[in-house]
Amino acid sequence: MKNPISKITNLVKKSIKETNLDDKLKKQLTPNSEITSRIYGAPKIHKKKVHLRPIVNTIGSPTYELAKYVASISPLVGKTSSYIKDSNQFVKYIKNTKLDPGDKIVSFDVVHLFTKPPLDEGIQVVKEVADPQTAKLAEIYLHSTFFSFQGEIFEQTSGVAMGSPLSPIVANLFMKNSKRKLWIHTH
User: Fold this and answer.
1) Residue 157 lies in domain
2) CA within 20 to 30 Å of 1's CA: 22, 64, 84, 149, which one?
3) Max CA pair span of the chain
C-alpha cells in the first residue's frame, strides 16, 4: 500500500482548522510529524495457549493528539451504569451488594473487544453521545488507522486499534450500546 500518512496529516489539519476550537488548542492538535503508527504483539500470558495481542503504537502519528483530545472530552468516560474502573472498584462494589437466594453473579469476557466490533457501528454510538464536532473528529480518527509492519503499511478496517487513547472509549460505548440492544430484545 502506498503511504497514506501525508493524506491523513492534511485531512487532520484541515478538519482541525474548520473547528471552533481556540487557536492554542488547534495548534496543539495539528500534526507536526508524519510518523506511521507501528504494530507489535504483546503476549497474553494469562491464557493457556499464548497468543499475541496486537497493539498499535500511535504515539507521534498525525492522529495521536487528536485521539487524546477526543478521548479526554468524551461525554461517557466512566459514566455508564455498568462501568467499573478496575478490580479494586469491583471489590468495593461487590462488598456492599446484597444478593437474594437464587441470585447469581456472572462475568463475561468479550473476545477481541477492540478489533472485532464493526467500525461504522462504533462511529454511530459516538455520534449518539457526542456533539457533532467531536463526533466528526472521532470519525476522522477512526477512519485513519494505518500502521507499519515489517516495512509494509496496512489499514485497520475493523474495530479500533489497541494502543490508541480513543479505543477504550469507543469499545465501552459499543458495549453499552450492545448491552442496551440485548436488554431491549430480552424484555
Assistant:
1) 5-99+110-186
2) 64
3) 62
d(CA 11, CA 141): 10
10 neighbors 63 (Cβ within 8 angstroms)? no
- The count of structural domains within the chain is 1
Q: What is the pLDDT of residue 30?
A: 93
Sheet holding 37-43, edge to edge: 52-57, 37-43, 146-149, 152-155
Question: Please, how many CA atoms are within 13 Å of residue 2, restricted to the half-sphere of its CB?
Answer: 3
Does 53 fall in a domain? yes
At residue 23, what is the residue type?
Answer: D
Is 162 a domain residue? yes
Rounded-to-integer distance, Cα 94 and Cα 88, Å:
10
If you average pLDDT over residues 133-148, what whole number do you get?
Answer: 89
Quick one: angle between helices 64-73 and 132-142, nearest 10? 140
Residue 130 CB-half CA count within 13 A:
23
For residue 130, is it within any domain?
Answer: yes
Examine residue 104 and state whether it is found in any structural domain, yes or no. Answer: no
**Which alpha helices (DSSP H) does 75-118 contain, by range?**
87-95
CA 123 to CA 128: how far, in whole Å? 9
Judging by beta carbons within 10 Å of its beta carbon (0-12, 13-18, 19+), is residue 122 exposed, middle or buried?
buried
